[in-house]
Design brief:
The complex is a heterodimer.
Chain A: H1 17-30, H2 44-52, H3 57-67, E1 71-72, H4 78-87, E2 99-104, H5 116-122, H6 127-130, E3 139-142, E4 159-168, H7 172-185, E5 192-200, H8 201-209, E6 213-220, H9 232-247, E7 264-265, E8 281-283, E9 286-289
Parallel strand pairs in A: 1-7, 2-3, 2-4, 4-5, 5-6
Antiparallel strand pairs in A: 8-9
Chain B: H1 3-14, H2 20-24, H3 29-41, E1 45-48, E2 51-54, H4 56-68
Antiparallel strand pairs in B: 1-2
Helix pairs in contact in B: 1-4
Chain lengths: 295, 105
């Protein structure tokens, strides 16, 4: 890991023992695994410490504070998190229905790609999910493309449509998906339910405003702007921007995609999360510092 | 963790020092964190207001180990770099270090 001694080290390249113990406590509180064998230089814990060597004390402190609020939903927790999200549906939400069509929440151009939302659709084969009291009387049809829906579904009052994903950020992908459903099957947003394992407040607000019912096991705000008041907010945003200048973050991803400021990793860390968590620091000789929760 | 490493670790705690010396000896950050937890569980450290210091038990342990390994004067505070120690040579012998140890390329 310590390959690139020539790179700028704002923290004088030094990590003191109290910082290692602080990070250990964060990992312990979060229930995140720490691989303390000698063989894993690339564990998230070691990557964090290596990253700290390149940041100054204010930046390290900010990163520790943000990490205390960080949410990780690991693959092994997907099924239980999906059940938790289903439980948030009103008890009578599908009462008048007899069929449930489950589709991945993807932009139309991504329907043929292998996206995480396709995996969420597959989880509806899980007995624990199928037997959930919100949906257990319904005939469930898993469809991986919108064209797989019956052509007359808009007129079938017994059919309900559920779009699923593991993360909703800005909500723009979902808006595209809804628009596509309108185009190909004449389905209006108020006929569609959207379920996500994790969603950001801004995405939920956007989709709810269109008339959709949206449920998510975890609804999260912006990591700095919704967490701090002035003057700390401006100070922390400035510090994060400094980190991102050093990290050479593309303008589209400053503070996360479209300034999302997310503090989330699902199976794959979304680009809505602050890039310091997922973007590798590169120099002219190649990759030098791995990100803690690399994409 | 062998006793020489314990000495070094307790010295680092006493000075709230940087962990580079442990990294140079091949330990990972996560192992260093593990040492911290282990020493804390053994009552060798105390934490107060975000600062960590040696407990009386920790100081006693450090003194005992210093005595055991014959560490006097500055060696009680600063561990020698064991990795640079070479065996005593006989008269007329010449020490030639391995090239890879000198980072020659």
């Amino acid at each position: 890991m310590r390959k690139c001694e020539d790179m700028a080290k704002k923290n004088n390249g030094k990590i003191n023992i109290s910082l290692v113990s602080r990070l250990w406590k964060i990992f312990e509180t979060k229930g995140w695994q720490i691989d303390d064998t000698a063989t894993n230089s690339f564990s998230p814990f070691n990557r964090f410490c290596e990253l700290f060597r390149h940041l100054d004390s204010k930046e390290v402190n900010l990163l520790c504070n943000l990490t205390e609020h960080y949410l990780r939903v690991k693959l092994q927790d997907y099924s239980s998190t999906l059940s938790n999200a289903l439980n948030l549906l009103p008890a009578d939400h599908f009462r008048e229905r007899s069929a449930l069509y489950v589709l991945p929440l993807v932009a139309p151009q991504d329907e043929n790609k292998n996206k995480s939302s396709h995996m969420i659709v597959s989880l509806f084969n899980d007995m624990d999910v199928k037997s959930n009291s919100r949906i257990n009387w319904l005939d469930i049809f898993l469809k991986y493309k919108s064209t797989g829906l019956p052509s007359n579904i808009a007129n079938d009052s017994k059919a309900s449509i559920l779009l699923v994903d593991d993360f909703i950020g800005t909500g723009e992908t979902a808006v595209e998906a809804l628009s596509h459903l309108k185009n190909v099957r004449n389905l209006l947003p108020n006929r569609v339910t959207i379920l996500s394992l994790v969603a950001q407040e801004r995405g939920v607000a956007l989709l709810t405003g269109l008339g959709c019912c949206v449920v998510s096991a975890h609804v999260v705000g912006r990591g700095i702007s919704d967490m701090y008041n002035e003057p700390e907010k401006t100070m922390h945003l400035d510090n994060m921007r400094k980190i991102e200048t050093w990290l050479e973050v593309d303008s589209d991803f400053r503070l996360g995609f479209k300034g999302s400021e997310a503090l989330v990793s699902v199976n794959r860390t979304p680009n809505n999360t602050f890039p310091i968590y997922w973007l590798k620091k590169k120099n002219e000789t190649g990759v030098c510092i791995g990100a803690p929760f690399e994409r | 963790m062998n006793e020489r490493t314990i000495i070094l670790f307790l010295q680092i705690i006493r000075g709230n020092g940087c962990v580079d010396e442990l990294l140079n000896r091949g330990f990972e950050y996560s192992q260093i964190g593990g040492f911290f937890v282990q020493c804390k569980a053994e009552g060798l450290l105390v934490e107060s207001k975000g600062k960590t210091t040696l407990s009386d038990k920790g100081l006693l342990k450090l003194n005992e180990l210093n005595k055991k390994y014959g560490r006097l004067n500055t060696e009680q505070w600063i561990s020698p770099d064991d990795t640079s120690i070479v065996k005593r040579l006989k008269k007329g012998e010449i020490y030639v270090p391995e090239g890879k140890k000198l980072n020659l390329r």
